[in-house]
Amino acid sequence: MAVLVADELDARLGDVDVPLAPARPELVFNQLTGASNSVRSLYDPVRAAAAAARARLVTAAARRWSLPAGSLRTQDSAVLAPDGRSASYASLAVEAAAVLVPAVPGTPKPPAQQRLVGQGTGRIDARDIVTGKAKYTGDLDIPGAVPTVVSRPPTINGTVRSYDATAALAMPGVLGVVRIPTGIAVLAETFDQAMKAKAAVQVTWQPGPLAALSDEDIRGKLRAAQPPFLIPPLLTRHVDAEFDFAFVSHAPMEVLTAVADVRADRAELWFGAQAPIVAQQAIAAELGLPLSAVTLHVVRGGGSFGRRLFHDAGLEAAQISRAAGRPVKLMWTRNDDVRHGRMRPASHHRIRATHALGQVLTYEHRVATVQTDFRHGLGEALTAAAFDLSVAGITLSQAFFLLTEKLPYELGVSTQLLAEVPLQMHTGSWRSVYSGLVRVADEIMVDELARTLGQDPVLFRRNRLPDATGRAVLDKLAQAGGWGRDLPAGHAQGIAFHAEHRSSVAYLVELDATDRADPRVTRAVAVADVGRAVNPRGLEAQLMGALMDGISVTLQAGLHIDKGAVREGSYADFKYARQRHSPPEFEVHLMPPSGSPGGAGELGVPAAAAAVANAYARATGTSPRSFPINF
Predict the structure, then answer these.
(1) Model pTM greater than 0.85?
(2) How wide is the angle at C-alpha 626 spanned by C-alphas 353 and 208, nearest 5°?
(3) Are 555 and 435 in the same domain?
(4) Are 169 and 91 part of one and the same domain?
(5) 80-136: per-residue pLDDT in tens?
(6) d(CA 85, CA 80)
(7) Does residue 583 share a domain with residue 451?
(8) Which residues pair with 359 in a beta bridge?
């Protein structure tokens, strides 16, 4: 956003600040950070607004100096006159705001005149982030807000049967203990005191609704939910495969934190929110206040990946503040979020492809997943797309699945169906939502079809991609990545392709599986076509992050469910990739600009994860079917 504004305004990039807006329910469409939507939806509006501002600034300067507006130019956050006079944008701002009809066109620049878009730059707030100047919710100093933590049940959605806070209330610094629907909240002068007092609260818990279920039970429910294939295997050559994907935590580096100050007639909250209007509405309803009486300040988030689409911490903070009668600063611990937060749902996949004479005739992909909770704002996106759910007779999850899951290849008659298993647990959109499961299974299956038909995996894909852009991405990947080069025994290359959000990407990874218990990606190459990359360095960072997600969930990171409880509790046992798992060599190649920007935040995960899986299969001579592989 800063690059777009600075480019259109002819401003210095360092002069641009991009604040986060509070929840604004008067907006026509929901404020939503998700679905790789920010750049592609704001590229034109932000440029138009900045261009309009520039035209008014020039007009104001022309009036001040009694000069023709067309004789003036803009540079470095100032308007310049032919005679050498200059006026900063700041000095002209009030006059410019009063201009109704500018004297020069307020139209955005054509691409040939853009000086910053496409050049690549670091984040304008990078120094603030790494030096601690950037403020997150936990850094805010809200008057009177006291440190607060919550004692939570051992099982998912367990409830309090009874509790005794006598010992906790007698401990130093403890300011209060209150009961909320999700547990027992402890307020203290410091978080250390609150944590110690939380451990002293004696709680008897009612088991949650999944207390009788473990991983194998859930997998059984998913398999049972699968509809049959349409094409029977009789008299038809076919390839069948089944895949299981585990639950996965979002695990953002910054744990969930929220500040709430609830009074009898109003409430004010601060927290990171990807869907602030939905959060504001839910909190107002919980407190019995009109929407106008609830103010929600959106704070920067230290990682989200879909987790902050939900406002769990904000809602709890409001409940605690109301019960305690004072402002609170609530912090979820890492254990809280891994065991009681949102998870990418587990899923089971059945795929059947029929073939004859070297050609794929039919391709059927059946997906059964624990139901994904979409009560966070993506429903508004579906409404805006005029998707009539009542007529279609499907759920929000199925609608989103149908809108986003597109097989990029021509594989005969193709069908994809989603069946959902409702379980009383916390699920949510995890980076790339369904694509990180569906397209991973597809890309593994495409590799196996290529082997079955005796064809090279790259050529097999290329010959079935109807889109010239996708073929160009694959060609560049094969060339830049050295597809087919000789590697030692136990090492192999893997590739995968994905297209979504008006963008496409392909990854090639090289993997060392000589130690199957500890495989390592040693090299990775990514090629992406996003139409136009506003900030190539930012895009490279997105694609690197997607690779680390792909390495994690393919090889080692997942959550176990044991009798209704999440076994993992921190980075120590939720084995997200560490620096030692990252490839020593990583390079990104971006295709030349070809139009407006597409989306990229979620684009890379499916191709990265599948490329890792395909490299593992080629290196070990196995066909992995359950992910993560080392679980």
Answers:
(1) yes
(2) 120
(3) yes
(4) no
(5) 999 999 999 999 999 999 999 999 999 999 999 999 999 999 988 999 999 999 999
(6) 6
(7) yes
(8) 356
